[in-house]
Design brief:
Its EC number is 6.1.1.2. The protein is of the alpha/beta class. It folds into three domains: 240 residues, HUPs (Rossmann fold, 3-Layer(aba) Sandwich), CATH 3.40.50.620; 139 residues, no CATH class; 119 residues, Tyrosyl-Transfer RNA Synthetase (Orthogonal Bundle). The chain is 48% helix and 10% strand. It is built from 23 helices and 13 strands. Helix 4 links the parallel strand 3 and strand 4. Helix 6 crosses helix 22. The longest helix has 31 residues. The chain is globular, with a radius of gyration of 27 Å. The N terminus and C terminus are likely disordered.
């Protein structure tokens, strides 16, 4: 394949061509099911309904971003700013993702492989896993089938640039440290949580539930020896796994570090209100601010707001829910004359007695020790986080950093709707004969108009075109200018569908020819690795 040459184009994100790939015809709601047919009718709903953050917000902080990031194919994230900082500062970070080997790898899977390989090339510790336990428990595949498919995935992984000498490849069923970690994590998750996240019920088999805990161990596995920022590249349908893993990473920690103002515990909303009261009251007096005074300031009758109020204070009170204000006031009144004073809190979650005592000793400066927590009046939150992790690691804990994630759009199937492994015409397998790939592209649905005349007059609908997605996601490679040119020629009527599909089909044929040559070269590499894929894979290799 002749790759389009990369350019130095750095247009603003909204100037690069983007599509809403994967919008299912007729879909009117968002479902995120890791084992089903997830639909995303409007990607903006993922920000509103699930708290996924927009990737454009962190894009400026990513050194030399991948073209999938620049073009909005990677559209969302959770906590990726932590990984971007590590990358920019040449600090340790990791990337992990994998596949449930239920069929042949296709161009949709290439997105994940590209993201793993790119992070590895940026200096990250790279992990690629075969979710064979999940395939067996959730899909009922035999171990022989799983082994055969696993080999095909790994050949494409290596052919697309993964360096197995610098990274790690493993199967869930053959990784004892992973299984031990899964056992420990299982003590921190219950059926009701799985029911809420995944819709499990009385008919869900135990092995399927166990495979979920194993996937949580997968996500945290890069940190098993040393905590570090870790990114998990996935489609949005895998977000339930990411959310649960972040919760488990927190619940496994010995200590929770937060900000506080008094001896009692508050949630983040209550804490924000109490902080406003403290700031307003402390500006007007040199005397210690008392909890009951803050309660008066926050009271619904606003008794002291006329004396101490600020426009900021008024705004935050107007925006706060009544029950949040009432709860904060109730806690403040119960504390009475206790001084209100900012501090950093170490809350005991799962710490051993020895670890708790060691933390008390390690905190320098003014501090106050309570039964379940320690308050420091001199440590910043960042320094407190570092100290808590250091003590935890010294006393047998993991010190997990909350895993991050990035999300790419679903690719639209060549026949319209979602790309599906069970519909061969909807996708191009990385194992397809190059001529078959050529013909599939030539037969693909497009976003063109009914006639060439209308296309020239009105322009094509590149945003709704599976063929344009092939350019944007794959065929234009790192050349943004090429992808932009295809988009603009389509939408202004210069480019007609016949010629566009012919060019795309030829590029696809070249890609498959090149990829399959590299797969042949990868066989020797894979066979030289210490990975036992099972009887089925060995038989396939011998053939």
């Amino acid at each position: 394949m002749t790759d389009p040459q990369p350019t130095d184009d750095r247009r603003a994100p909204d100037q690069l061509p983007r599509t809403d790939g994967g919008t299912a015809t007729g879909a009117d709601e968002t479902t995120l099911d890791p084992w089903g047919s997830s639909t995303v009718a409007d990607y903006r709903k993922l920000f509103e309904e699930f708290g996924i953050e927009e990737f454009d917000d962190v894009l400026p902080d990513v050194p030399s971003p991948h073209y999938l990031m620049r073009r909005g194919v990677i559209f969302g994230h959770r906590g990726y700013d932590r990984v971007a900082r590590a990358m920019a500062n040449d600090e340790e970070f990791a990337v992990l993702s994998g596949w449930m080997p239920t069929g042949d790898p296709h161009i949709g899977h290439k997105l994940v492989i590209d993201e793993i390989v790119w992070h590895q090339q940026q200096g990250g510790d790279a992990y690629a896993l075969i979710a064979d336990m999940e395939a067996h428990s959730a899909r009922g595949l035999s171990w022989d089938e799983i082994a055969r498919h696993s080999r095909e995935y790994l050949l494409s992984l290596i052919a697309l640039g993964f360096d197995p000498e610098e990274g790690e490849i493993y199967r869930q069923s053959d990784n004892r440290p992973l299984q031990d970690l899964a056992f420990e994590l299982g003590a921190h998750v219950n059926f009701s949580e799985m029911q809420a996240l995944y819709g499990f019920d009385g008919g869900t088999n135990v092995s399927h539930m166990q495979s979920v805990v194993t996937q949580m161990a997968d996500i945290l596995y890069p940190q098993i020896d040393e905590p570090k920022p870790t990114v998990i590249p996935v489609g949005p349908d895998q977000d339930p796994h990411v959310r649960l893993s972040r919760d488990l990473a927190a619940s496994m920690r010995y200590f929770k570090v937060s900000e506080a103002y008094a001896s009692f515990e508050t949630d983040s909303e209550e804490r924000a209100l109490i902080g406003e009261a403290y700031d307003a009251l402390s500006e007007s007096t040199d005397d210690p601010v008392r909890c009951d005074e803050a309660a008066d300031w926050l009271s619904p009758d606003m008794t002291l707001l006329s004396d101490y109020g600020t426009s900021t204070g008024e705004n935050i009170l107007e925006q706060a829910e009544d029950e949040v204000i009432e709860s904060a006031v109730e806690k403040l009144r119960a504390a009475g004359k206790e001084p209100l004073r900012p501090r950093t809190r170490f809350l005991d979650r799962t710490a051993t007695d020895d670890a708790f005592e060691a933390l008390i000793e390690a905190i320098e400066g003014e501090k106050r020790v309570y039964e379940g927590h320690i308050d420091s009046f001199e440590l910043s939150r960042e320094d407190a986080e570092s100290l808590a992790r250091e003590v935890e690691l010294d006393h047998g804990g993991y010190g997990f950093v909350a895993p991050s994630s990035i999300y790419h759009r679903f690719m639209t199937g060549l026949t319209g709707g979602k790309m599906s492994s069970s519909v061969p015409a909807s996708h191009i397998s990385l194992l397809d004969d190059p001529e078959e790939g050529y013909e599939k592209v030539k037969s693909a649905t497009t976003g063109g108009r009914e006639t060439a005349e209308k296309q020239r007059e009105l322009g094509g609908r590149a945003d709704e075109c599976p063929v344009y997605e092939l350019y944007n996601y794959l065929l234009a490679a790192d050349d943004d200018e090429f992808a932009i040119r295809v988009y603009e020629e389509c939408t202004n009527g210069e480019r007609l569908c016949g010629g566009c599909k012919e060019q795309a089909a030829e590029l696809m044929r070249e890609f498959l020819e090149d990829h399959q040559e590299k797969r042949e070269e990868a066989k020797e590499v894979l066979d030289g690795l210490d990975i036992d894929l099972g009887f089925g894979a060995e038989t396939e290799a011998a053939n």
